[in-house]
Amino acid sequence: MTTTELETAAGTRVFAISGSLRKASFNSALVRAAVELAPEDVTFDVYDELREIPSFDDDVRIAGLPASVERLGARIKAADALVIAMPEYNYSLPGVLKNAIDWASRIQPSPFAGKALGIMGASPGMYGTARSQYHLRQIAVFLDMHPINKPEVMVTRASDKFDAAGQLTDDATRKVVASFVVALRDWSLRIRSVKVGTG
Ligand SMILES: Cc1cc2nc3c(=O)[nH]c(=O)nc-3n(C[C@H](O)[C@H](O)[C@H](O)COP(=O)(O)O)c2cc1C
């Protein structure tokens, strides 16, 4: 077996973060849809502790990383790729998500560096989080992450696409999410094969 075949056989581990704390969040529902629609060789670890991350304070960081930040860093590190599904707040990232990214970015060595990133977003409005997604792409440059370009998952008019239980019911969007997970897996495998010098 070549290294690339070995990587493929081991599967792809994805760490997924929803940038919303709301129980009925469309973006958390979008993460659940990605898990549901993923191929067998992709496994998800879905983040459930965003609420535990304190406000960033560099004095606190210097005194010692909070346990919740250590745990976040370890879960990012254990993954091959990240999925971030986030709302757009005032044309940008939600503060709670940016705060968590800021904390984890201070961990040395950076758990983000060199990883594939898939970005998704859902909004009740017309733009499907496009503006916040481009802000996250800018942040990914400094984090040295590698976002996939396509497909872009920008779910517009979200209230028409999820049912009351938070199930993604819109067929066209389900297809895009399914192909997004496959594209992220393939991109992650390519990056990993280049890292070990086989690409
Ligand atoms: C502080 C705040 C700012 C918002 N700004 C935007 C915005 O810039 N663009 C947009 O499409 N929706 C905006 N919204 C609406 C959100 O898209 C909407 O609340 C969405 O359902 C949040 O995502 P969630 O369902 O995952 O919690 C904003 C909502 C809040 C609370």
Walk me through the structure.
- The protein is α/β, with parallel strands linked by helices.
- The protein has one domain (about 5-195): Rossmann fold (3-Layer(aba) Sandwich).
- It contains seven helices and six strands.
- The model has no long low-confidence stretch (mean pLDDT about 95).
- Strands 1, 2, 3, 4, 5 and 6 form a six-stranded parallel beta sheet that branches.
- The chain is globular.
- It starts with a helix and ends with a helix.
Question: What is this entry, summarized?
Answer:
The chain has 199 residues and is an alpha/beta fold.
The oligomeric status of these chains comes to: single chain
Radius of gyration: 16 Å
Indicate the overall shape.
globular
Class of secondary structure makeup: alpha/beta
* Share of residues in strands: 5-15%
CATH H-level superfamily title: Flavodoxin domain
CATH topology assignment: Rossmann fold
CATH class: Alpha Beta
Number of domains: 1
**Count of DSSP E strands?**
6
CATH hierarchy: architecture: 3-Layer(aba) Sandwich
SSE pattern, N- to C-terminal: HEHEHHEHEHEEH
